[in-house]
Amino acid sequence: MKIEQPKVAIQGIRASFHEEAALKYFGENTETIECNSFKQTFESLKNREADYVVMAIENSIAGSILPNYTLLLDYGFPVVGEIYLPIQLHLMALPGVKFEDIKYVTSHPIALRQCVDFFDEYPHLKIVESSDTAACAKRIRDEQLTDTVAIANSLAAKLYGLDVLERRIESNKRNFTRFLILTHHDNIEKKPANKASLCFQVSNKVGALAKVLNIFAEEGVNMSKIQSMPILGKRNEYNFYVDIEWEEQKQYDASIRQILKYTHNFNILGEYERHDDEHTVSPKPRRAERSIRKYINIRRNV
């Protein structure tokens, strides 16, 4: 079922990286629902307040967001897509504020850690951690702070009317965050899939996991991700979260039939089209700029 103006639950506020990911995946005609936590986004989907959830699952520097794997299993909403978002961090302040006037820098702890090389050059700046990058930019605008700068994305600077003093201050210029797209079971569109997210357990015996992984290899199925999570209250027992990709559907079907023999509590968390770097991460600049301008005008008129 195609929704013309999808309601998408995100962790954080407008202009956060989660909203940037939602807009990039669904387009500019998207209504985002702000949530204080990842669990709240799932509750919003459960209560039919949202049509989709966009949730970060891993970052190329910070690694996997482990509690979110538990949410996938606890709520059981299917994964219907993914998107990788390049994390570009900018230093922003109220219009007219000069760099020499700055005393404090505020942002999310992970964003701050990704800018350590910049802070090494300016050790006099005092770092203030916050829960959300976009919220820091909003606070500067709302409280008219002239001695404080925020580290956030360009969307936050545009939405909250801040000047970008320094662009791309992140230490690693090739940092990406992977986001999963989830929805209701009755809202799944039937599309060709070439990627799946699985969760299963294996017995605590020599070679039990190796048997499963060898099946993928023998069938020509690529395992692009594996993450283990201990099962609460059970010693030496784990849930294995695995992402696999294939070129032909028969490869996937054959591998699933075989691994069912060697696993238990097997779950297919979602079957979807894998992210395409060429077409999704780097949209045409002019189109992206038009989307951002239209987005800003819509938000200012709300």
Order of helices and strands: EHEHEEHEEEHHEHEHEEEHEEHEHH
**Helical residue percent?**
25-40%
Number of strands: 15
For the CA atoms, what is the radius of gyration? 21 Å
Instruction: Report the β-strand fraction as a percent range.
Output: 25-35%
N-C termini distance: 28 Å
Describe this entry's structure for a reader:
The structure is a single chain. This protein is an alpha/beta fold. It contains eleven helices and 15 strands. The chain has helices spanning 17-26, 38-46, 66-75, 109-113, 116-121, 133-143, 154-159, 208-218, 249-259, 277-281, 285-301; strands at 7-11, 31-35, 52-59, 63-64, 79-86, 90-93, 104-107, 126-129, 148-152, 163-166, 176-183, 195-201, 222-230, 238-245, 264-272. Strands 1, 2, 3, 4, 5 and 11 form a six-stranded mixed β-sheet that branches. Strands 8-7-9-6-10 form a five-stranded mixed β-sheet. The protein has a four-stranded antiparallel β-sheet with strand order 13-14-12-15, sandwiched between helices. A hairpin with a 3-residue loop joins strand 3 (52-59) and strand 4 (63-64). Helix 8 packs antiparallel against helix 9 (249-259). The radius of gyration is 21 Å and the shape is elongated. The two termini are 28 Å apart.
Task: Please provide a brief summary of the model.
This protein is α/β, with parallel strands linked by helices and 302 residues long. The chain is built from eleven helices and 15 strands.
Topology of this structure?
Elements: E1 7-11, H1 17-26, E2 31-35, H2 38-46, E3 52-59, E4 63-64, H3 66-75, E5 79-86, E6 90-93, E7 104-107, H4 109-113, H5 116-121, E8 126-129, H6 133-143, E9 148-152, H7 154-159, E10 163-166, E11 176-183, E12 195-201, H8 208-218, E13 222-230, E14 238-245, H9 249-259, E15 264-272, H10 277-281, H11 285-301
Parallel strand pairs: 1-2, 1-3, 7-8, 7-9
Antiparallel strand pairs: 3-4, 3-11, 5-11, 6-9, 6-10, 12-14, 12-15, 13-14
Helix pairs in contact: 8-9
